[in-house]
Design a protein that fits this description.
alpha/beta, 22% strand, globular, 35% helix, 5-stranded parallel β-sheet
């Protein structure tokens, strides 16, 4: 039976069909409502449980390893929900105006009204550029994971995986299992920082043991794994097959040049929160993630009534925590829409999520970019590849104008005005600005999001249409 009064038909929209979005939808359906679920992907699962097309299906164990059972549970839950939700795959949210969403759907920009909006937008990678990172053959770790998981494709015959954070070893293990020739795994975290993080990571011992098993499996297979490594330069020519080699420095300061055909790198994850920005949510600087996050209470409520954040889009804690946070955000939305709704789940969900906070602190220690990065990058290094803006031009702007805030830097240099709207260059540029202006990172602020946050074809803008946010379903008796 629905817990809500039968006269109410609130319109709930969920953005994202990963672990958080799916669990949020499950809880809303349980309350007898039919949510709209907007998803950029072709199929549910998000990045962590991404599904390949039917022609490339493989056994769950091959695709998801230790997480095969969780992936299966998430996918099966969503399939059961399909008849009770308004699912809109291949749909990209590009603007939020008050209680209206603008969504690019099937080539048309449609408007959806909502009473409650749950943003389960997931995470994006933190990229710290280095010389040669714009060469063909250089990818992010997330892109490498999409290639092997959703497209059954290896990026190159000889691949190097580099950066920081657990994703580095997960992707390395996935590539090893898929038969790739991994030339090296270059972990920029030192062995000292790893040992310091272990006590916090052991708040979730099963996860730590899985990670240790992956690293051991790589080493036993003869894959060179180096800690304390630093990326120096990718070598190659755009017109001549792109990447050919990588120069890197080991923990002892010795430089090496290693031949390779592909490189995937990244420096941890950060929340994808541009939609929350457009919705008018207040933000706060999170010292653990070293990033600006939507301000939210421990139930997912933001500063804007009716707008909630869940999963890695709120704070990066992993897929297990995302499922809990999705359910919790849905409970909060239902409770706010109907104050008399009894909701005994909330306290248990909050307690379960608190256990993930200590683990999150350990993850941050493993994923932290090198502290000297901003001081060491050369002036000619491209930071914003959309607008081809170099580190030197950003430093010169600070020197000439005294700019010490990100949006001022954007106005003066066009930083973050390209296709990605600052998602890729923003974190690196903020560190450069803080270093050049000699101020703490949090003082330079963040790039304000501007619509469209995702590319929208001009013809789609010209064909904007109205769309109902929720298809009336009536109430169900279960």
């Amino acid at each position: 039976m629905s817990n809500l009064p039968r006269s109410t038909t609130p319109q709930i929209v969920i953005v994202g069909a990963g672990p958080a979005g799916i669990r949020a939808a499950e809880r809303v359906v349980k309350a007898g409502l039919r949510p709209v679920v907007i998803d950029e992907g072709d199929q549910c699962g998000g990045q962590i449980y991404r599904q390949p097309p039917a022609a490339l299906r493989r056994p769950f164990r091959d695709l998801y390893g230790f997480e095969a059972s969780r992936a299966a549970a998430i996918h099966q839950t969503f399939e059961r929900l399909r008849v009770y939700i308004d699912y809109r795959p291949r749909s990209a949210l590009w603007h939020v105006e008050g209680r209206t969403l603008h969504v690019l759907q099937e080539g048309v920009s449609v408007r959806l009204m909502f009473d409650a909006l749950i943003l389960a937008t997931g995470a994006t990678e933190r990229v710290m550029p280095f010389a040669g990172w714009t060469l063909p053959g250089v990818f992010t770790l997330g892109a490498a994971q999409i290639a092997v998981k959703a497209q059954a494709t290896l990026l190159g015959p000889r691949i190097i995986l580099a950066g920081t954070g657990p994703l580095l070893y997960l992707v390395a293990w996935q590539y090893h299992k898929s038969g790739a020739q991994i030339v090296a795994v270059l972990d920029e975290a030192t062995s000292t920082s790893t040992w310091r993080a272990l006590p916090k990571l052991f708040s979730r011992p099963a996860v730590v043991l899985k990670g240790a098993w992956m690293v051991a499996a790589l080493r036993l297979a003869g894959v060179p794994v180096h800690q304390g490594a630093r990326l120096i330069r990718a070598h190659g020519e755009v017109a001549n097959e792109g990447l050919q080699a990588l120069t890197w420095r080991d923990a002892r300061g010795q430089e090496h040049t290693t031949a390779c055909d592909a490189l995937a790198f990244g420096h941890g994850l950060r929340s994808e929160n541009q939609a929350a920005d457009l919705a008018g949510c207040a933000f706060e600087f999170d010292p653990f993630d070293q990033a600006w996050q939507p301000s939210a209470d421990d139930q997912g409520r933001t500063s804007v009534a009716g707008v909630y954040v869940a999963g890695d889009g709120a704070r990066v804690r992993g897929a297990d925590a995302a499922e809990l946070a999705g359910t919790l955000a849905a409970c909060s939305a239902l409770q706010d829409l109907s104050p008399h709704t009894a909701n005994h789940e909330i306290a248990d969900l909050q307690k379960s999520l608190r256990a993930h906070e200590t683990f999150r602190e350990g993850l941050r220690q493993l994923s932290e970019p090198p502290s000297t990065w901003a001081r060491e990058v050369p002036d000619e290094l491209i930071i914003c590849r959309c607008e081809e803006i170099t580190a030197g031009s950003l430093r010169q702007c600070v020197m000439d104008t005294g700019a010490c805030e990100m949006n001022r830097l954007k106005a003066l240099t066009r930083l973050g005005m390209g296709r990605c709207q600052g998602r890729m260059c923003g974190p690196a540029a903020a560190r450069l600005l803080a270093d050049a202006a000699d101020v703490p990172l949090h003082e330079v602020g963040r790039l304000r999001s501007q619509p469209p946050i995702k590319p929208v074809p001009i013809h789609a803008m010209g064909r904007m249409s109205e769309a109902a946010a929720v298809v009336p379903t009536g109430e169900r008796d279960d």
